[in-house]
C-alpha cells in the first residue's frame, strides 16, 4: 500500500493527530519521545461518490479504499547526528512515499516546547535541516561506494554518480533533493535512491482550539513558506480532531456544523495525502459490493485490474468503463449501456479518476 509518514518535532501534536486519524488509541503524553515504536495506521479514504454509487446499486457491502499513515517519532535537532532517538527514525522514514509535516501553531503553556517557544518557521527549518543532513550523509556514502564500483565502466553507475553529485549540490545549498536540477531520466534514477527529501511534502498547521480558521500570524508565515516551496498547507486543530474522531454519524455532522466546518480536518488531511501521492480512485460496482480502489495516476487498465487480483492483470482482455458522472446520470450500468455511455477499453487505456470498471479476463 501507499504510505504517508507523519513527521514533526516532539510535542507538536503528531500522536494526537495520528491517533485521531486511526483511532488507534496509542498513548499521547506531554513529554518528548513518547512515541518510540513507529505506529502504522490504515485509514479509510472518505469519498462521497461511494454513497452515490451505493444508493443506485444497493449492494450488500460498501468498501472504501485505504491509505497508510506512519507516525514517525524521534526527529529532534541533532537527530541525524544521534541526538534523541538518533538515527532510528531514518529507517522508518525511508519507507514512506510522502511526508505530512506537522507544525505546532498552537500556544499552550501546559505543553512544553522543546525549544522553549512556539515558532513554526524555526521548527520547520530544524526538521528540514535534519532530513537534509541525513540525505547528505547517505548521498556521500553512496558516491564513494559507486565511484569504487564504477571503475569497471558500468554506464548505469556513471549515470547514478552524476545524479548523486547534482543532488549533493542541492543538499549543500540547503535545498531538498526534490529541488535538484534533473532531467526526466535522472529523476527516475533519483526515485530509486530512497532519499527522504525527494519525497513530496504536505504541511499541516496544528492550530489552537480557538483558531480553527488559522488566523494566527504563525499560520500566515507558514503558508508563505509552503507556497515558496510549492507545497500544500492544511490547517487543523489536533485537540478538536481527537474529539471529532470519537463521534460517529449524525453526532459528528452536528458537531462539525456547530464549529462551522464542512468536513473534519482529518478527512481533508487524508485526501491531501492521497493527492500528494499522485493517487486516484476507480470503482467496481456490483450487487455484492461497491468498492473503491487506489491506483497511481497514469496507470493503464491491466495495471488497475492487477490491484484487484494478479490474475485479472495476467489474463486481461478488456475493460468495460463508465465514467462516474455517466453512471449516476443513467442510474446504473443498464441505463449507461442503453445510452451508449459504456465504453470498451483495451490494454492501453489510461484509467481516469472515478471510472466505474468491469474487467474481462481469461483464466
Ligand atoms: P507529539 O510529541 O508530536 O506526538 O505530540 P502529542 O500529540 O503527544 O501532543 C503533545 C501535547 O500537546 C499533548 O498534551 C496534546 O494534548 C497537546 N496538543 C496536541 N494538539 C493540540 C492542540 O491542537 N491544542 C492544544 N492546546 N494542545 C494540543
Automatic annotation (TrEMBL):
Residues 2-278 form the OBG-type G domain. Pfam families: MMR_HSR1, YchF-GTPase_C. Gene3D superfamilies: 3.10.20.30, P-loop containing nucleotide triphosphate hydrolases, TGS-like domain. The keyword Magnesium applies. GO terms for cellular component: cytoplasm. PROSITE patterns: G_OBG, TGS. ATP binds at residues 11-16. The keyword Membrane does not apply. One of its GO terms (molecular function) is GTP binding. Keywords: ATP-binding, Magnesium, Metal-binding, Nucleotide-binding. Residues 278-361 form the TGS domain. Its cofactor is Mg(2+). ATPase that binds to both the 70S ribosome and the 50S ribosomal subunit in a nucleotide-independent manner. PANTHER family: OBG GTPASE FAMILY, OBG-TYPE G DOMAIN-CONTAINING PROTEIN. Belongs to the TRAFAC class OBG-HflX-like GTPase superfamily. OBG GTPase family. YchF/OLA1 subfamily. This is Ribosome-binding ATPase YchF. It comes from Geoalkalibacter ferrihydriticus DSM 17813.
